[in-house]
Amino acid sequence: MKLNNNVTEFILVGLTQDPIKKKIVFVTFLLLYLGTLLGNFLIITTIKTSRALGSPMYFFLFHLSLSDTFLSTSIAPRVIADALLKKTTISFSECMIQVFSSHFFGCLEIFILILMAVDRYVAICKPLHYMTIMSHRVCGGLMALAWVGACVHSSTQIFLTLSLPFCGPNVIDHYFCDLQPLLKLACADTYVTNLLLVSNSGAICTVSFVVLMVSYVVILHHLRNHSAEGRRKALSTCISHIIVVILFFGPCIFIYTRPATTFPMDKMIAVFYTIGAPFLNPLIYTLRNAEVKNAMRMLWRKKLISDDKR
Predict the structure, then answer these.
(1) Which UniProt keywords apply (predicted)?
(2) In order of start, what are the domains of the chain with their CATH numbers?
(3) pTM for this predicted structure
(4) Element (H or E) spanning 12, and its range?
(5) CA 255, CA 178: separation in Å to the nearest integer?
(6) Tens digit of pLDDT for each residue in 221-236?
(7) Could you give the residue ranges of the DSSP H alpha helices within the chain?
(8) pLDDT tens digits for range 64-101
C-alpha cells in the first residue's frame, strides 16, 4: 500500500514537559516496567516448569503473562527513553508499528480474559465434563483463534490509519502513538474512519466486558451449590479475574467508545491499561492464588538445592 502522506516523523508531547516531572516519569515507568518483566517472567517460568500447574487455567494464564509482557514492551521502553530527551520524535513507520503492536497485544489480552472466563465457567458449572470440554487440543485451538482474531483487529486498525493522509501537523499530544491523537492530525475528514475505528475497538471492549460480567454472574450463581471449601477456592480465582477485567476494560472503554475527541486525562487513563494492568496482573494472580505461590516456592527450593550441590 502506498502511504498517502508527507509526514516522515511525529513529535510525541509525552506525559509532561517539566524537567523534574520527566525524571519522576522516568523512574516510575522504569520501576513499573522492570516489575512487569520480573512478575510475568516468574509466572511464565513457574507454569512452564511446574507439573502441578498443568490445567487449562494456567495454560491461559501463561499466555496472558506473555501478552502482558509484549503489551508493556511495545510502549514502556519508548516512554522511559523519551523521558530523558528534550525533544522526542518517532518515525512514521515506528509509529504505525506501535499502533499495530499495542492494539494486537491489547486485543489478545481481551480474548485471553474471555477464554479464562470460559474455563472457569466449565470448571464450576460442568465439573464432570471439564477435562473433556477443555482438552489440550481445544485450548490450543482456542488460543490460536485468539491470536488470529487479535491480528485481524490490529490489521484493520492499521489499514484504516494508513488510508488517511498526513500532510501537515505532526505533534501527537500523547506519550505513545494511538489512534485518537493520530486522527486529529489527518488532513482529511475522519468522521467515517473514526466511526469504523470506534465501532471496531469500542465494540470489542464493550461487548467483551458485558460477556465477561454476565459469565461471572452465572458462575457466582452456580457457586451457591458448592461446599464451603470449594466455594472459597473458586471465589478466590474468580475475584482475581474480575479485578483484572475491571482494571483493564474500564480505561479501554473510556478511551475507545467515544467520538474523535481527546481529553487531558486520556494520557493518565491510558497508563492504567498500557502499563498498570501488565504490572498488576502478576501480583493479583500470585497473591490470591495458593497453587501458583506453592509452585513458586517449590521452584525456588529446587534452585537453592541445585545451587548447594554445586
Answers:
(1) Cell membrane, G-protein coupled receptor, Membrane, Olfaction, Receptor, Sensory transduction, Transducer, Transmembrane, Transmembrane helix
(2) 9-309 (1.20.1070.10)
(3) 0.87
(4) strand 9-12
(5) 10
(6) 887 777 777 677 777 7
(7) 19-49, 56-73, 76-82, 92-125, 130-133, 136-162, 179-183, 191-197, 203-222, 228-256, 266-271, 277-287, 290-309
(8) 999 999 999 999 999 999 988 888 889 989 999 999 99
